[in-house]
Amino acid sequence: AQKVTQAQTEISVVEKEDVTLDCVYETRDTTYYLFWYKQPPSGELVFLIRRNSFDEQNEISGRYSWNFQKSTSSFNFTITASQVVDSAVYFCALSGAGSYQLTFGKGTKLSVIP
Amino acid sequence: KAGVTQTPRYLIKTRGQQVTLSCSPISGHRSVSWYQQTPGQGLQFLFEYFSETQRNKGNFPGRFSGRQFSNSRSEMNVSTLELGDSALYLCASSSVGDRVYEQYFGPGTRLTVT
Lengths: 114, 114
Prior knowledge:
The complex is a heterodimer.
Chain A lengths: L2 E3 L4 E5 L4 E3 L2 E3 L5 E8 L6 E7 L6 E3 L2 E6 L4 E6 L8 E9 L6 E2 L3 E6 L1
Parallel strand pairs in A: 2-12
Antiparallel strand pairs in A: 1-4, 3-9, 5-6, 5-10, 7-8, 8-9, 10-11, 10-12
Chain B lengths: L4 E3 L2 E4 L5 E6 L6 E8 L3 E9 L2 E5 L6 E5 L5 E5 L8 E8 L8 E3 L3 E5 L1
Parallel strand pairs in B: 2-11
Antiparallel strand pairs in B: 1-3, 3-8, 4-5, 4-9, 5-6, 7-8, 9-10, 9-11
């Protein structure tokens, strides 16, 4: 069985602060995929990143960066210099090889205060 | 490219009725997945279709069903609605090739059962 844990239910930061959202996963698959999605108040899930289990290279995209560590089964997401527009619920998700079924964490609600 | 579209966006039904939700994937995408999102259970996988065939099904009762048409458009049906079926229903489509497994979500259909 697969499981994704996002221990942080809600986080509040002041604008321009850096914030890290934690994600820990469990899977027996040797090949799997990890994802982060953003869900603003409008409700639509916005795809942010996909990471393959065999690629542990960290990734940076503008103010966003992701730290994948297989040894600790973690896939953390950092927002640098947060902005009010970053306020949303962020979901970490996992799928096995050959599967389109996403297992989601419970989400972390991020509030960026001006 | 147009994104994933879902209709209707909002729906109010009475217990015992049935409902059909529609999803049009991104052009060229052949896989369509459905998810239910509730405050208590979070995001849960319902089923996934590829080339008109259901490839995977989540742990939901038989009242939940779906289908996919030759143009990749998909519908899901819920019969004998219960109060607990009130949720945001999200559809996602997935590409092929190097972006396989990246799922892009529609805005959702918010179903309220009274």
